[in-house]
Amino acid sequence: MRSVLVVGGGPAGLSASAELADLGVPTVLVEREGSLGGNPVRWKYPVLVPDLRPAGEVMDPLISRVASHPNIERLLAASVASVAPSPTGFHVTIRQGTETLERDVGAAILATGFEHFDPHRKHEYGYGRLADVLDFKDVERMLAEGKLRRPSNGAVPRRVAWLLCVGSRDIQVGNTWCCRMGCAVSIKQAIEVRERYPDVEAYVYYMDIRTPGLWEKLYWSSMSEHGVRFIRGRIGHITVAPDGQRLLATSEDTLLHRPMEEAFDLIVLATGMEPGPGTSEAARVFHVPQGPEGFLAPRSAESNPVDSGTPGIFLAGAATGPKAISESVTEGMGAALLAYRHVRA
Amino acid sequence: MRSVLVVGGGPAGLSASAELADLGVPTVLVEREGSLGGNPVRWKYPVLVPDLRPAGEVMDPLISRVASHPNIERLLAASVASVAPSPTGFHVTIRQGTETLERDVGAAILATGFEHFDPHRKHEYGYGRLADVLDFKDVERMLAEGKLRRPSNGAVPRRVAWLLCVGSRDIQVGNTWCCRMGCAVSIKQAIEVRERYPDVEAYVYYMDIRTPGLWEKLYWSSMSEHGVRFIRGRIGHITVAPDGQRLLATSEDTLLHRPMEEAFDLIVLATGMEPGPGTSEAARVFHVPQGPEGFLAPRSAESNPVDSGTPGIFLAGAATGPKAISESVTEGMGAALLAYRHVRA
User: For chain B, how far is it from start to end, CA to CA, in angstroms?
Assistant: First the structure.
């Protein structure tokens, strides 16, 4: 049986690799980071939406299936340098450090994932300049380590605000799309904070709360059971409060229709999802088109989001747009199935 | 090779059946309606979100792959009456009219889909009583047939409103979840109406606009290119206007913070998605748990939404919660892969 190349070792790539390997397909997994797991592991997500299940319960079994499978060649800290058609599929050149490896594969699955939006790009929010302005990942890490603190003075915060859509739905930074996960993840963080620190007041600034489908229960319970408060408005800028200690968020409350200034001890920026350099690189070497947003464009997003349109090249996960982990895992299976049918023929 | 039973002939079940059959697995497809295609075909959806692609371009190839495949036994207007464990998997009794069929299968995929919320249940909106109050499906059919008319007098409407979240996010009717598709489908309909009837004014009443991920472009273009107007508020009730002709929608505009009465020629109720009787029946005969909302509950929604937790029983599509067609197709592939691994072992 011909082998399959999987590019990317996040949830989608891990799922695809594990399924292919279990079907007896020799699989080559190329991951540019030094370890497997993708963003959930790299940024230490503690629990997942919608059921606040520990991330490890989902990621660990996926990683161990791949890490020990005899049918998978794992190439970490590696990237695909070039691809050429070959009689049996694709001749692939892979760079790993100073080494150059050559592999012949029958099909490829591109699961190159996403990057978190860099909050430094929204100067008006002061990330990197104001110590107590954090981003989503900083808080995930604090929660994973079990301590939420103000970086400025090490104290437990009293009032925390989440600011949704940072680098999403924002034509100024060129990201017009929605990051799909920001609302649910912020609400999840607010619930976690309220559970662990019942004295902390939690506020969420939003334009639209997007908890589609069954995720809605997260939104309802955050209000009815956990006392998280929601303010409809977008923060214009963040400055230091007159007391020299706290942060001042200036916004317009679009429900009460009035300007607001509120002081917080900690402000969390819910940064969006962008196609990363790995996705652009994959588009270039595999000649897969990118949509207007920069994500890989399937042949038909409505009918089959894992089919690139090029025979033997399949897509999975956030490489084609913002996705939840569960959706990436399922797409990894779908892509594995199509790749299996392709190489087995 | 042992065979696989697929319950449900909508997008997820069709996708699963076609993939299994292509892998050489004898497949038994049971569909309770008299034809294949599920809700998109039954209700004649004209075009799909987000790219307004004709539904036929997605559904027709899926249906023809299944309709002519020699590895698929198609049992229409049929349902699973009972399931018993057998040495090779499951012994299944299927009812088709007055006939009773018995099949032995190694695995089953439950793809029983959803039902549209019955708008009669929201009395205050007058569906079935006020001729010009339509639901989402009525408008899909009108658009598919190429004519949008007021049922009361046959005239082309001048002002049309879409009312989101009818039977969704509504504790009064017991449906607390979000239907996931209502915003995108309503915006899509409004765009279609504005394109075909440029003189028609289109208004959308919403609580939150939920066009997650790359679907956001639909929302943006509806405003910037198509002049669709959005009003944040939920309509309390619909009555006949003083002129005896039009409809009067009473609401509170939660942005302008004032009560509103607006007259429309046509009001479209964006009805939600509910687990249908087919899903409850499948839960019962296959002993698969249902979540609090009544949808089938995967073992772990976060890690693997197509795995029921019972060996040999897999889930796909809207049976586990509101889904887009593309997501159902992908889940059909994922479930097919797991079922294939199960029966091939």
Answer: 9
- The DSSP H or E segment spanning B14 is helix B11-22
Q: Are residues A135 and A255 in the same domain?
A: yes
Residue pair B279/B295 in contact (Cβ under 8 Å)? The answer is yes
Query: Cβ of B213 under 8 Å from any chain A Cβ?
Result: yes
Going from the C-alpha of B189 to that of each of A214, B42, B135, B195, the distances in angstroms are 24, 18, 12, 10
Which CATH number do you get for residue B106? 3.50.50.60
Nearest CA in chain A to B332: A334
Q: Which residues contact A317 (CB under 8 A, 6 or more apart)?
A: A8, A10, A11, A12, A13, A111, A113, A323, A327, A328, A331, A332
Choose one of B273, B300, B319: the last residue of a domain.
Answer: B273
Q: How far apart are CA A285 and CA A313, in angstroms?
A: 12
Distance of CA B18 to CAs A256, A302, B25, B72, B271, Å? Answer: 53, 17, 10, 8, 30
Question: Do residues B222 and B134 both lie within one domain?
Answer: yes
Q: Find tokens 């060649």 and name the residue.
A: A73
**Nearest-by-CA chain A residue for B291:** A214
Same domain, yes or no, for A101 and A157?
A: no
Whether the CB-CB separation of B203 and B264 falls below 8 Å is answered with yes
Residue type, A205: Y
Q: How far apart are CA B263 and CA A167, in angstroms?
A: 38
By 3-state DSSP, what share of chain B in percent is helix, strand and coil, each rounded to 5?
30, 30, 35
* pLDDT tens for each residue of B218-255: 999 999 999 999 999 888 999 999 999 999 999 887 77
Identify from B64, B185, B330, B331 which residue to disrupt to test chain A contact, counting A C-beta atoms within 10 A and taking the largest count.
B330
Place of tokens 């949509």: A291
Query: So what's the pLDDT on residue A50?
Result: 79
Name every chain B residue with its beta carbon within 8 A of the beta carbon of A211: 178
- Supply B316's token pair: 């796909």
DSSP string over A55-69: HHHHHHHHHHHHHT-
Q: What is the pLDDT of residues B191-224, one digit of tens each?
A: 999 999 999 999 999 999 999 999 999 999 999 9
- Nearest residue to B64 via CA among B46, B42, B37: B37
Count of domains observed in chain B: 2
Q: Identify the H or E element spanning A270.
A: strand A266-271
Structural domain for B250, as ranges? 116-273
Q: Which of B178, B303, B337 sits opposite A212 (nearest CB)?
A: B178
Measured CA angle at A223 (ends A217, A226), to 5 deg: 100
Q: Are residues B107 and B121 in the same domain?
A: no
Nearest C-alpha neighbor of B246 from the set B232, B263, B268: B263
